[in-house]
Specification:
There is one protein chain. With 279 residues, the chain is α/β, with parallel strands linked by helices. It has a domain at 8-195: TIM Barrel, CATH 3.20.20.100. The chain has helices spanning 31-42, 57-66, 87-101, 119-131, 145-152, 173-181, 201-210, 214-224, 236-242, 252-259; strands at 8-10, 16-18, 22-23, 47-49, 75-80, 106-111, 135-141, 161-165, 185-189, 228-229. An 8-stranded parallel β-sheet has the order 3-4-5-6-7-8-9-10. The chain has a two-stranded antiparallel ribbon with strand order 1-2. Helix 2 links the parallel strand 4 (47-49) and strand 5 (75-80). It is globular.
C-alpha cells in the first residue's frame, strides 16, 4: 500500500509510475504554473501531469529545469489534443509538446479524448514514438470500455494507462474491473470533482473520524482502490496537505460507504459526447 509520494505502481511494460502526482489543468501559463510545479517538486512530488490544451507546457518545462531535481527522478505526462488526432498530425503535435516542455523524452503520453474515428491511427503514431524510445509509456484518457475493446482489437501495444474522471460520485466500477483485467492502470482526473465533494456529510464524517480533511479521505480512497491520482492545486499549503495521505488507512467499511456515494455523475464531459476539437 502507498506509503509516500515516491511510491509507484508498475505498468505492464515494467515502467514504474508514481501513484500520486500534481495535475495542472486550468493552471495559468507563466508564474502561476511555474510556482505551483516548483512547490510540488520541492515538497516531494515526482509526477507532474499536463496537456497540450492546458496551454502551460512551457511553464511546466521551466519549473522542471528550475526545480534542482534531475530529470530522471521525475515522471512527466502530457496529452495529445483532439484536433491533432491522426497519424502525421500526432507525430507533429508530439514534437511541439516536447519543444515547449524542453524535454528529451516523455514518461507518459496520452490521447486526451477518444472521439469517433481517428484514435486507431493516432495510436499507431503513439506506438511508433514508443518504439523509437521517445516515450517510456503510452496510454489513453477518457476511454470507455467499448473504446478500449475497439483499440485493443487492432493495436500492437495495448495502453498502459487510462486516465478518466474518477471520484466518489463516479466510481466507474465496470471500467475499473476491465482495466485491471487487462493490466491497464486506471488514473483519476478531477478526483475531488472540482471541489463539489468537499461538503459531503458522509465524507465529512469519515474525515472527522480519521482527523483528516475530506480531500485527504478521497485521495486516500483513490490509493486504496489502486487508482493513480493527480489532484490539482496552485497553493503550496494545499499541495502539501493533499499529499498528507500516507499516515492513515480507510477501513473496508469506510471504503464501502464512499463507494456507496456513486451517482454516475460527472463534472466534465461524457466521453461519448465530447466533440470539442473534433469538429
Amino acid at each position: 500500500m502507498a506509503t509516500s509520494l515516491k511510491d509507484t505502481t508498475t505498468l505492464h511494460n515494467g515502467v514504474k509510475m508514481p501513484r500520486f502526482g500534481l495535475g495542472v489543468f486550468k493552471v495559468k501559463e507563466g508564474e502561476e504554473v511555474i510556482e505551483s510545479v516548483k512547490a510540488a517538486i520541492k515538497n516531494g512530488y515526482i509526477s507532474i501531469d499536463t496537456a497540450a490544451i492546458y496551454g502551460n507546457e512551457e511553464g511546466v518545462g521551466q519549473a522542471i529545469r528550475e526545480s534542482g531535481v534531475s530529470r530522471e527522478d521525475l515522471f512527466i505526462t502530457t496529452k495529445l489534443w483532439n484536433s491533432e488526432q491522426g497519424y502525421e498530425s500526432t507525430l507533429k503535435a508530439f514534437e511541439t509538446s516536447m519543444e515547449k516542455l524542453g524535454l528529451e523524452y516523455l514518461d507518459l503520453y496520452l490521447i486526451h479524448w477518444p472521439g469517433k474515428d481517428k484514435y486507431k491511427e493516432t495510436w499507431r503514431a503513439f506506438e511508433k514514438l514508443y518504439n523509437d524510445g521517445k516515450i517510456r509509456a503510452i496510454g489513453v484518457s477518457n476511454f470507455q470500455v467499448h473504446h478500449l475493446e475497439d483499440l485493443m482489437s487492432s493495436c500492437e501495444i495495448k495502453p498502459m494507462v487510462n486516465q478518466v474522471e474518477y471520484h466518489p460520485h463516479l466510481t466507474q466500477k465496470e471500467l475499473h474491473a476491465f482495466c485491471k483485467k487487462n493490466e491497464i492502470q486506471l488514473e483519476a482526473w478531477s478526483p475531488l470533482k472540482q471541489g463539489q465533494l468537499l461538503e459531503d456529510p458522509t465524507l465529512k464524517e469519515i474525515a472527522d473520524k480519521h482527523n483528516k480533511t475530506v480531500a485527504q479521505v478521497i485521495l486516500r480512497w483513490d490509493l486504496q482502490n489502486e487508482v493513480v491520482t493527480i489532484p490539482k492545486s496552485t497553493k503550496e499549503h494545499r499541495i502539501i496537505e493533499n499529499a498528507d495521505v500516507f499516515d492513515f488507512e480507510l477501513s473496508s467499511e469506510d471504503i464501502e460507504r464512499i463507494d456507496g456515494l456513486n451517482q454516475d455523475s460527472r463534472a466534465g464531459s461524457h466521453p461519448d459526447s465530447m466533440t470539442v476539437g473534433f469538429e
